[in-house]
Amino acid sequence: MWRRGADAEGFAANFVESEQIMQSKGFTASYVQVRGSMPFLWEQIVDLTYKPSFDIVRQEDAPSVLERHFHDLQKKYGAVLAVDLVNTGGGEGRLREKYAKSIEPILSEDIRYVHFDFHRVCGHIHFERLSQLYDQIKDYLQKHKYFLINDKGEKIEEQTGTVRTNCIDCLDRTNVTQVLTSIYHIHSYFNIYCLSNNLSMQYHLSSSYYRKVCRQIVN
C-alpha cells in the first residue's frame, strides 16, 4: 500500500482499470476508467508519523516519465482526462505543483488535467459538492461517452476516452470520485435508452443514497 509514483518507464504504482457493465432492455453498456499514483518519480517512506513526508526523486525526469505514461494510456484508451484530487497546500501541494507543471507540455484536446482539492471542498461528509467537479468535466464525459451494444450485438456507442483519477494512495478520495463518473454514465445510459424519468445529475449527487454510498466507501 506504500508504493508511490511511477518508474522510469512511466508505469504507475496502484494502477487499476475498472469496468462498469450494465444490462437492461436488451442493451449492454460498458464504461472503463482508471486510477493510479501521480506518474512521476516520487516516494513516501513509512515511518512513525501519521503522514509520512513525500520526496520527489530526479525532478528533471518528471516530464519525460509522465509523457511516457500518458502516451501509453492514449494508445489503450484514446483521450485521457487526469483528475488530481490531492490537497492544494503542504506536502501534497508540492506534488500537485510538480504534476501540473510536468503535464503542461503535453496538454491538448486529448490530454486534459483538472485539479480538485477534495478535502477542502468536500471535507469528510459533503460529497454532494462533487457537483463542482462534475461541472468541470461533464463536457469531456459527454464527448467521449461509453460503449453500448444492442441485443443483436450491434455497436451503438463507443467510448473514446477515459478518466484517470488519483489522490495520494488512490483509495478513499479516488473511490468516491469514481462513483461520480459511474453515476454519470448510469444516468446517461438509462435516460437515453431505458426511458427513465430524466432526473438531473445534480439530483443524484444531492440524494441521500449517493451520500450513503460515499460514506460507506470512506469509512
Automatic annotation (TrEMBL):
It comes from the Eukaryota. It holds the Pfam family Syja_N. GO terms for molecular function: phosphatase activity. This is Phosphoinositide phosphatase SAC6.
